[in-house]
Amino acid sequence: MVFLFLLQLFALLPLALTAPAAVTDSILPVNDTFYIPPKGFESAAPGDILRSRTPPKPIAAFSLAKVNLRSAHQLLYRTTDSFGEPIAAVSTILVPHNADYTKLLSYQVAQDAADPNCAPSYAFQLEAAHDGTLGLVMPQLELILIAAALQRGWVVTVPDHLGPKSAFLANHLSGHVVLDNIRAAKASTNLTDLSSDPTIALWGYSGGSLASGFAAELQPSYAPELNIQGAALGGTVPQILPVIHEANKSPFAGLIPAGVQGLANEYPEIAKLIQQNLIPAKAAEFSKTKNLCLTGNILEYLNKDVNTFVKDKEIFTSATASKVINANAMGHHNPKIPLFVYKSAGDEISPVNNTDSLVASYCDGGSRVEYKRDALSEHASLAIIGVPDTLMWLEDRMNGVPVKAGCSKSTSFTSLLDPGALVVLGETIVQILLTLLDAPVGPIQIG
């Protein structure tokens, strides 16, 4: 019953947004000078804070319900793009009431869009409105999941991990942005009161798992000083090309133009490939993705055949495309960070066998992985069903519980058959309702 209630809650909350969007004077990221790095920022070290502020508007669930936090901060920091060049990115640090300043969770949202105005730093603000009324529903929905972590007292940092150009699927960039967002958070002690040496963990689902997974893969070489205790990767998307095949002509076809344009935002050769191959009559329709967020892309390209947009039907397997796509697939490096990987056995966006192969590769390379497959779910529902198991695993990492050596793999009808998961689920429902009712977010202290 509690599971059905939670599904109904998540299904019904976005309906509130079908009313006309609130009139807002919020400044979109592309027009906000905060996002522009100061002159000479290139000489700063990766993770150095370039600028900070309190978010222009309060943090709010679904842009409507203020989240009662102790404080919120935004940092502009120096990071690195796919080619090793310096760029700047923004992160949002959320501090709960009664915070445990020794615990830091970096949560990566599934932004999955080629429009910089879909960034969580903007989407989490009160009255944020872009791409029509429903455009920012998905990052706003994940704020509710973040609240479950905040209720445990953890400080949560949320990077705009697609970078300033919203380079969706440029996963090396995302991994750099995530790791530097942690460096910036650690350097924010004077602003946030966070410990300078906190216990650190990562969490991301779907597109967020790409950013978290690449951060885990790149950490030994890019940020070896970061002592990250674990990374939870849900709805993993190890390979890009199988997603194109699965998503085309499906309800998720909008992921394809968003992903192609996201790569074009980062890679000039992909931008040139699009320019050369787009059918002129389809160019305007394809270009809509530049101004759409995840929900807008899904609605705009629902069940469409993306192959009808291009002259060459083999464009995605061309030498140019293959080089970039393969470079941004998971599995190039073995993470030293312990991993919790959860995946729907019936995932209709990224086939489960791709994740099976990725986990096997990690395990062969000596990584520590706990891999759980869920038979009852599909891609979207596992984002909710997987929360209890994930929170329990992350809580162990935050509390210093040792990770078993080696790997484990299991498949269950549903993880919610675990009594412990049901308890956490019930707590999460209560936390969601309290968050929406403006109750203080954070652990309750008695006495």
Account of the 3D structure:
By secondary structure, the protein is α/β, with parallel strands linked by helices. It folds into two domains: 2-239 and 330-436, Rossmann fold; 249-326, 434 Repressor (Amino-terminal Domain), CATH 1.10.260. The chain is 38% helix and 17% strand. It is built from 16 helices and twelve strands. It has helices spanning 2-12, 120-123, 137-150, 171-186, 189-192, 207-222, 241-247, 255-266, 268-277, 280-287, 294-300, 319-327, 352-364, 379-385, 387-398, 419-436; strands at residues 49-53, 60-61, 65-66, 71-80, 86-95, 100-108, 154-159, 199-205, 228-234, 339-344, 369-374, 407-412. The strands form two sheets. A ten-stranded mixed sheet has the order 1-4-5-7-6-8-9-10-11-12, sandwiched between helices. Strands 2-3 form a two-stranded antiparallel sheet. Helix 13 links the parallel strand 10 (339-344) and strand 11. The longest helix is centred in the last third of the chain and has 18 residues, at 419-436. It is globular.
Structural descriptors:
447 residues, alpha/beta, Rossmann fold, 434 Repressor (Amino-terminal Domain), 2 domains, 10-stranded mixed β-sheet, 16 helices, disordered N terminus
The 3D shape can be described as globular
Biggest β-sheet, characterized?
10 strands, mixed
User: Level of helix content?
Assistant: 25-40%
- The side-by-side strand order for the widest beta sheet comes to 1-4-5-7-6-8-9-10-11-12
**What is the helix tally?**
16
Overall mean pLDDT: 89
Query: What is the gyration radius calculated from CA atoms?
Result: 20 Å
Distance between the termini: 34 Å
Signal peptide: 1-18
Protein name: Putative secretory lipase
Keywords: Hydrolase, Signal
Pfam families: LIP (PF03583)
